[in-house]
Records
---
Amino acid sequence: MQSSLYQSIYEGAYGLIAGFAMTLRHLFRRPITEPYPEFKRQLPERTRATIILTSNPDGDERCVACYLCSGVCPVNCISMQSAERSDGRRHAAWFRINFARCIFCGFCEEACPTLAIQLTPHFETSQRDILKLLYEKEDLLVNHGGKNSDYNFYHHAGVALVGDKGSHVGEEQPVDIRTLMP
Amino acid sequence: MPKLIIDDRKIEVALGVKVIDAAEQAGIMIPRFCYHPALGSVGACRMCAVKFLDGPVRGLQMSCMVEAKDGMVISSTDDEAVDFRRFVIELLMLNHPHDCPVCDEGGQCLLQDETVSGGHAMRRYMGKKRTHRDQYLGELVQHEMNRCIHCYRCKRFYQDFCGYRDFGVMGIANRTYFGRYSDGQLENPFSGNLIDLCPTGVLTDKPARFKGRRWDFQRAPSLCIQCSLGCHTIVNARYRELIRIEARYNEHINGHFICDRGRLGFAFANHPDRPRQALIHGSAVTYKDAIRTVADRLSTISQSAGPNAIACAASSRSSVETIMGLKFLAHALSWRSPGFFMDRLQQDKVSAAAGRLDPNLAISLREVEQADTILVLGADPIQEAPMLALAMRQAHRAGAKVAVLDPRPVSLPFDYEYWPMTTDNLNSALQELMRSVLSENAAESYLCENIQPLAIMLQNSQRPVIVCGTDIVNLSVITAAADLALQLQDANKCAGLFYVLPGANAYGAAIASIGSEPFSELLGSIENGEVRALLLVETDFLYHFPDQARVKSALERLELLVVMDYLPNHTMEFVGQTPATISSSVPTSALTYITLPTLTHFETQASFINQEGRLQQATPVHTSGTPLSQLTGGKHPPREFRNDIPGGGAKAAWRIFSELEAAILSSHPAMTSFHDLWSRIEQELNIDVHIENSNEIPDNLRIYSKNISSELYCELA
């Protein structure tokens, strides 16, 4: 009974003194906080912030305007219009991301079958005018492959556009329909 | 009536129904690729496997190949069946390319749905994929043969159902190829249905290529207004632009399919020159100002020359709402009764056809398929009502004999007897046939020897159908066709009568045209100065009337000409010019030209009565306005905030009439809402089934009249 009373007095006093001691020690230490605009931390590569539209290794745009990103977007911030380019390729006639609405969830990147849409660590996009947060295709398009620089969707898709039929990865030569030979 | 149990659900179905359909009736959708209700079963894809637990058939069977029998106990979720279907999907996917992102079928793809629902997510087979070269199949259908899963739906539809031979199947086994022998336009006028039928993206819609995904489209059940049949469609629109039209199932009319004209004939709604702004002498004004100007001018003319100096006209492409609205307006202001036809003969012929139809005589397109003898009088089905040709082919496939009596060389996708004869001979031939039907022996002496085979054909028939055109035939042929059908009925045959009319709502126009004068007669009244003001609603006299110079000089004699249309029509173009540029002999100081844009049936609720008397309604798919692509030239949407829709100034014709009535009478108009309009239409058409919600016309509602000048009555069976 006696010892437990002494113990609780000791513990209480220790808690107070140790706490004040820590506070006192920090009064004489140099601050470790780094002020943000002057010091910018290197964020991990997969941090989810501003969205870009990447390019194929051959330099052509990757996006085929398949509407999967706009379909999966939980806040409907992506809108686009697909169209046929003069060379027969499917592309986005216009592509718009409303960053005022974007919640940087990364679903679009996950849905993208051509690895075109990617989130980057660049997060400093705030604007006073909300219309400036409306990014058009020319604002989003970059001339590099982002996280996957060597992937080209058309080498796997099987449509005769980049290379003829049968020339892509894992394809046989086109069937000759005029023969019945095995 | 076999009673069976599918997935613990008891169901009783008709005799001869396949298990796959029985399951669908019980609300269970068994996966399928090759089976289609209109094309029948072939058992090619092996996807509809189910487990038969008890009854006359046991074990794993294809549900499309087995007829429902009494006492069957079937499981579609049995482990064995589910496993089987998963492996089938995996096999079908072996050669399927990874091009869903650039495939237009993505989002509405049966293969995509069933692959996902079958649980096949990862490709295990690492071998090479078979590839095919694609073909150019014309401007309607896009070919991408790599995606094919060999269900044979396209070949069965193209060759068996439609009867065209230029598209088919080549090769064997894994190399089976569906296409033409060489590149070229598909000859089948129903080829667009391949797009709907293909369960994957081999055959896709070319005009809508890369225009968007199904889930982004505004979709609405609509009607086709390309001919008088009134086929059911689904309209897809996006960003105020019509993208594509699909077939909508209707058991009475078009079944599962529509013709290519109906599928592609929507470009008028996207026309860049569509009127979207109210104009006075070609300069833009607000709608309010235009209505006020029209009302003022009409009041002045009515006071100075009497209400009989004001005439109005609509056409057979106008909806019931427009036609009836115009009729109510003309009646309320005691104008001349509106006209809907170009000349007296056309009006009389269509009215005669509408007057002769009754519930016992009129048959639906579906009933044409069940005929055993079809007599076609002065009609060219492929040109005038394409789906009729398809229905006749189905009858022919079931063994029906078809005879075509026409002065023109008519082309149909099946074997038929062609009887070339002039329109005058057509009438006498019909008289002869009628006499032969009454007599016991078809080979009686007074029968003109030439048409004896026809008489015998009719006498041997059980379910004869008389198809009669209204374009090139004489007025007497139209009534004679009905008489012949009646006589066949008297001879204890299940005879039917099927008219082909010149417009989506020609029937509606005919029953509204009692006491009205056609344009050819109106023209005389304008020329002799009786008519001073003319309201043209969705009609283009300058284009359709043969003597254009006469119409032009007549229109210049008017004091007021108001043109309302959703199309950029020729009269509107003429009106768009300011009076100064029109060479006119009469003083034009008082002449006022006004253009008011109206709405298509894609943009407002519109009803049409088809050639059978069937009243049907199209639901609007989107709000009227300049399509985004035309507004920005394909670039991104404007970066501005605005409250109105660009180019969205048009109003439904009946609403313009209502506002005009209010402005002229300066009182509360009789029809302020769509509901008001419809209660008046119900009264006018004598529809005794009350339409609770004007958006929902009951299925199978048909409107007939004893004869065209007597009372209307409706039939709901």
---
Amino acid sequence: MASSRSGKLLAVIGDEDTCTGFLLGGIGELNKHRHPNFMVVEKDTPTNEIEEQLKKFLNRQDIAIILISQSIADVVRHVIDAHVEPIPTILEIPSKDAPYDPSKDSILRRAKGMFSAEDFR
Amino acid sequence: MTSHERIDIFPSRMNLTIMKTRLKGAHKGHSLLKKKADALKIRFHSILKKIIEAKQEMGEVMKEASFSLAETKFSGGDFSPVVLQNVSKAQMKVRSKKENVAGVKLPVFEVYEDGTDSYELTGLARGGEQLNRLKKNYAKAVKLLVELASLQTAFVTLDEAIKITNRRVNAIEHVIIPRIERTISYIVTELDEGEREEFFRLKKIQQKKEVMRNKQDKIRRKWQEEQEKENLPVNQTPNLLADDEDEDLLF
Amino acid sequence: MGSFDLSEIFYNVDSGYLEGLIRGFKNGILRQEDYRHLTQCDTLEDLKLHLQGTDYGNFLANEPSPLTVSVIDDKLREKLVAEFEYIRNHSYKELGVFLDFIKYSYMIDNIILLITGTLHQRQLSELLTKCHPLGTFDQMETVTIATNTADLYNAILVDSPLAPFFKECISEEDLNEMNIEIIRNTLYKAYLEAFYDWCKEKGGATADVMCEILAFEADRRSIIITINSFGTELTKEDRAKLYPRRGKLYPDGLIELARADDYETVKRIAEYYADYRPLFDGTGNGPGDKTLEDKFFEHEVTLNVNSFMQQFQYGVFYSYVKLKEQECRNVIWIAECIAQRHRAKIESYIPIM
């Protein structure tokens, strides 16, 4: 497998604080084209920019996991829903002022019916 | 019985044996796939449970992490822009391995650290202590998230695998096995038919032979009588090579 | 002592209005009861409402809901910048120089940000918005045009007010090779020493007040840098180069600090100094314990509040900015605690008496 040959990256799409935190966690990288593997979304960042960046991340071979703040994931939900391949996997994370809502999670929605909402509490 | 509902095959005894083997194989395959589907389902449910647990834990860990960010900002000022600019090589990377569950390869991510911390001296003069805690918290979050990502990919892969397996189980059960069964019964019918024809034909030959034997008997008796009249020995063996009057038997 | 008296006579002519103004501003600093109200808020909207009752007034009135912490942060900063710029624009001669010294510390951070961006070949134009507004200077745009470190170095030397500090301690090669944090702290050390010397030369009450505060700042940096350098790639020699040589620890304490290997040693060194000994007592990492940095912040606040006890000196301007900065951090801290529903530590802001 090509994937096991070399290490892959995590990518982040989130607000400034989320990105800062994960970069300090040590996941940040600029590739040789000087493209970062993170995207800071401000409150006035247009939706299509987020969409494009997410699609770019999805198409990059060196990214295995994409972390995205759930509040931002809501904006580009259709892109996430359309993504069916297991790798790269999209992971929705809570943003600091919005607690995590499992009922919105694209992955967990697939499991709807197998578990009741009480299991998430 | 139309031909597309069974396998197009010459109804011979050999093909019947082949078909019977195939039927056996299909049954075996069916039960194996069924077992596989069950195994996958058990795994699937345990993963789902783990995902829900991990997502809950993620809520906690992320909360702690982002709070420590606030703490660091309180003592260290706003360092985000520098951190966002000072990116070079990732320290945390993931490797993917494959785990085999009932023949389905599940990708498993594994975090490993590579290279140095490019923010080692950030916050040197202010907030370094909090920053270290912040880094630890986020590193912990990364580890947990990677684990969660493994579970999630496993979830998606298994979901797909279970669907495929179920489809196969159903196909074997409802299409392949009936078709083979129909083929077998077709071959059996055809063979029976052939057998009956054969039987009839044998009977017919026997009949014909009976008639011929009677005729010969009659000739022989007549010939014996003639011999007795001419006073010849009764049991004189005729010359085998001189069977000119032997008629050819043709069917 | 003649010149000393003279300077006090002319102080009011040159800066009396501004001092009055700054003392007025200082009265608007949030009090204990304001903090009590703020910590009781359940949402950021509540917080906004309570802030409207203080000197901040309607500063958040035009912000659309939902209110976020970063918006509050921006607005708080905006207000401080507006006040400072007003004072700076009306200041005369020496006070202007003094106020510029205050700005330099922000400029260092901005320059460091620009250098980091250049080294990683990022789009510099977008960085300008991230720079602290107090640290902007007229030719900042020209600095951002630089595409490589050599250009950048020259641009900083030619165009930025930080040139003297730069020339003194950073060479062009350093820009490429040195860790950015080392550059930052080297610059800051040079800046602190220059500021201290300027105040000392100014003499009078300004020197009395400012030298005390700046000496504390210098010592605090030395101590914190030492503690934070344990377990990092920073060598002892490099570490010693970052100590500002103006504080009370200079020279003996710094020599000792340069040799320190662990926290206990630092603590033992600090215990020789009556000012710092109490700061180390009762610190800890447990919940409810104050960290050493918190203690330092408290001490800084005390010094800055005391600076208002004396008249006819520039220290009040410096102290006001520092107090206001601490206040912004306090408000943001409380706002973060509210936004993240993490109330357990909401009380650990640094009160300003």
